[in-house]
Amino acid sequence: MTSIDLASAPPADSARTGRLIVYGIVFVIALALALAPFLFQDVRSSQVAARICVFIVLAASYDLLIGYTGIVSFAHTMFFGLGAYGAAIALKTMGPGWDAVLLGGAAGVVAAIVLAVAIGVLSLRVKAIFFAMVTLAAASVMMVLASQFSDFTGGEDGIVYKAPDLFKPATKLVTDDNGKVVKLFGVSLNGKIAAYYFVFLSCLMLFYALVRIVRSPLGTVLEAIRENEMRAEAIGYRVVAYRTSVFVIAAVIAALAGTVWAVWLKYTGPETTLSFAIMIDILLMVVIGGMGTMVGAVIGVVLMSLAQFYLKDLMASAAEATEAIPLIPELLDPDRWLLWLGIIFILLVYFFPAGIAGTLMKKGGH
């Protein structure tokens, strides 16, 4: 096909091609995550893969707010932390059983619902900037409470506990006739594999639930509210009720993601669940991937996570390879990785103004 043919291609064909590219990228990511224990066998890679799974759900649930409904909230990590702390406190006090996971997770979800309803009913009637400030204040208060109530939360040190016995490395999932653990592609089928697939499958179900929500009639109403709130209210939709409902749904999903993260990490503290840095990461992940696309969360989380965990290593290797060239090794010093991360983010925003998925899909479809 010539350049003239490409230039004159119908917008619909361009959007269709973009969607195929995006869905192809997401499929490859999903396949890599599904096979991560066998493809990436070191401890660090397993940790990164599990984090990507959890943060995809967290970023996608935030996209439900900001991308589909136009709600700017800075309290999303608060709900994430409630789910994590609920499971952590229960596992610490009740012991490493599934009853503790279920009870603690349920307590975190209930707390998230109560707070989300209270914030939504009291604040979603005001303008967006004031609502954002209210959520920021609520998140800050929760951070302080988690740090101060050390008898329950462990304070700044957090809580260390044990996960259910199924997830212990010594647990043998499959054994041979001699009682030895079976290996698949060189990987022992033990509790570490069970722990990872608990995270992967839980996050897959939560992400699927979010996709079903945005493709339902509710998702259409949310987009109508985002585009023109006054018009949506004029044709009969109770805007505040819908906005409060979606705020609660996003809070519940975030709390469940927090519970899964707590079970995997076996440690919960303010910096791992409630920090404002995590909130900024989530926002950047959604913006990079593309707001209002849902699949953009997958791309954004993967890019940000890989950059955060591997950019320094890549820069160190590049600096070593170019040590004979003046100035280049200094520019590629691993200590300057945040500078290069910022440059990469600026370039992504410049070339993909609607996010990677949003730009490629031309805002067509979900």
Task: Describe this structure as you would to a colleague.
With 366 residues, this protein is mainly alpha-helical. It has a single domain, classed as ABC transporter involved in vitamin B12 uptake, BtuC, CATH 1.10.3470. It contains 18 helices and 4 strands. The chain is globular and about 70 Å long. The two termini are 28 Å apart. Mean pLDDT is 86; it is low at 1-9.
Name the helicity range. Answer: over 70%
Low-confidence stretches: 1-9
Radius of gyration: 22 Å
Mean pLDDT: 86
Q: How many strand segments? A: 4
Topology order in helix (H) and strand (E) letters: HHHHHHHHEEEHHHHEHHHHHH
CATH topology: ABC transporter involved in vitamin B12 uptake, BtuC
Give the assembly state of these chains: single chain
**Strand order in space, largest sheet:** 1-4
Looking at the overall shape, the CATH architecture is: Orthogonal Bundle
How far apart the termini lie comes to: 28 Å
For the record, the CATH class is Mainly Alpha
Helical segment count: 18
Helix and strand content put the structural class at: mainly alpha
Strand content: under 5%
Number of domains: 1
List the helices and strands and how they pair.
Blueprint: H1 3-7, H2 11-34, H3 36-39, H4 43-66, H5 76-94, H6 98-123, H7 128-148, H8 150-153, E1 159-160, E2 183-184, E3 187-188, H9 191-214, H10 217-227, H11 229-234, H12 239-265, E4 267-268, H13 270-273, H14 276-289, H15 295-321, H16 328-331, H17 337-351, H18 356-361
Antiparallel strand pairs: 1-4, 2-3
